[in-house]
Amino acid sequence: MTLSMVSLQNVGFIGLGNMGSRMANNLIKAGFKLIVHDKNSDVLEMFSQMGVPTKKTPYEVSEASDVVITMLPSSAHVIDVYTGPNGLLHGGKLIRPWLLIDSSTIDPQTSRNLSATISNYILKEKKGDWEMPVKLDAPVSGSIIAAEAGTLTFMVGGSEEALLAAKSLFLSMGKSTIYCGGAGSGSAAKICNNLALAVSMLGISEALALGQSLGVSASSLTEIFNCSSARCWSSDTYNPVPGLMEGVPSSRDYNGGFASKLMAKDLNLAVESAKLAGCKYPLTSQAQEIYTELCNGGHDTKDFSCAFRHYYSGMDEPLDN
């Protein structure tokens, strides 16, 4: 089967939060015709004032779109948008969009289940010789800043042929797409990525706080880490020590980054996935406990690098020192 004749022109976008709104803006800049929906009427009004058609329900978006992209907070939200009252799949077994892309960070099982459900549907209008709709799970790696700059990385699970046909869509929102395998594998890759990120941030924070307690400055340790075997993104690009690096959340009281509550959510998904897979998960479990504690302590909206200050009691190191 070929997707060479499918259309990408009319793109529905559901979920216009911090990430989604910026992804949608980049699609508009790239020349795609957007139709949008969000539960937040203020956000819809903002897009409406930009001349973007808005719809009251996901189903209305589906009826007007060749492709639908969802960017939602949780598995429950995704299930509701797809299968709930007035959801994307509301209109019986016939559906207009040939491609459904979910960029939410959710559990792999939900992604696989939705893909299986969608495989039972038929397109209202045949696209080339493609008669059935396709779903891709395509969560992203990258911050709000990356979403705005269009430099996200997409981790994609599902039909590789569909991914290739929709490459221009992805590259309008991000710098790269990585094919991970069948349905649910994109979701699984995102969970594994964020698990590694959480553990590395905690490891760097723990080492830097210990160093400070032993009389070694975080700036000296960071210099050592960054030219030796401890080097990692949490040290050289997103350092958690306030005052040590400009342009990162630690330099602005841990505001404007990846919220601790979102990291806690992703670690919950990782724990559940590890249990289902029968894998050991001691570091995942410990990281989950730490981020849950941070959230319960009132730091849920602070960037996840705040563990350095609010869990390990690490100290600031002003740049001029």
Automatic annotation (TrEMBL):
Residues 10-181 form the 6-phosphogluconate dehydrogenase NADP-binding domain. One of its GO terms (biological process) is L-valine catabolic process. Residues 184-310 form the 3-hydroxyisobutyrate dehydrogenase-like NAD-binding domain. It comes from the Eukaryota. Gene3D superfamilies: N-(1-d-carboxylethyl)-l-norvaline Dehydrogenase, domain 2, NAD(P)-binding Rossmann-like Domain. Its EC number is 1.1.1.31. Its main location: mitochondrion. Keywords: Branched-chain amino acid catabolism, Mitochondrion, NAD, Oxidoreductase, Transit peptide. GO terms for cellular component: mitochondrion. Pathway: Amino-acid degradation; L-valine degradation. The active site is at 190. It catalyses: 3-hydroxy-2-methylpropanoate + NAD(+) = 2-methyl-3-oxopropanoate + NADH + H(+). It is found in: Mitochondrion. It is an enzyme of class 1 (oxidoreductase). One of its GO terms (molecular function) is NADP binding. Belongs to the HIBADH-related family. 3-hydroxyisobutyrate dehydrogenase subfamily. This is 3-hydroxyisobutyrate dehydrogenase. It comes from Pisum sativum.
